[in-house]
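Reopening this ticket.

The earlier resolution said the output was attached, but the attachment link was broken on my side. Pasting everything inline this time so it's all in one place.
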Amino acid sequence: MPCLVAAIAFFFPRLAIILIAIFSDYLGRAFSGEWLWPVLGFFFMPYTVLAYAFAQNAGGGVHGLYLVLVIVAVLLDLGVIGGGADSSRKWLKE
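Inline output:
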């Protein structure tokens, strides 16, 4: 079951954020009751929100290996955004 959740989180991060927000308090514990950052992260950086929530809940903070995980998530989010911009430029040239 955890592998299925990880696969859903990797391929559909926004769906994972919605399911986590509905069925648990995982995001609430990670962001200490704040609602603005998870909502902004849902739209702009979903992998980072999931990685930060995991780091806060599993590791007790963003340090060590969890810091590496959050950095990789940020780079993945930026790569997804950048890849979309690159493909739209190619489409405009044709």
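Reporter confirms the inline version is readable. The two ends are 45 Å apart (CA to CA). The first helix runs from residue 2 to 11.
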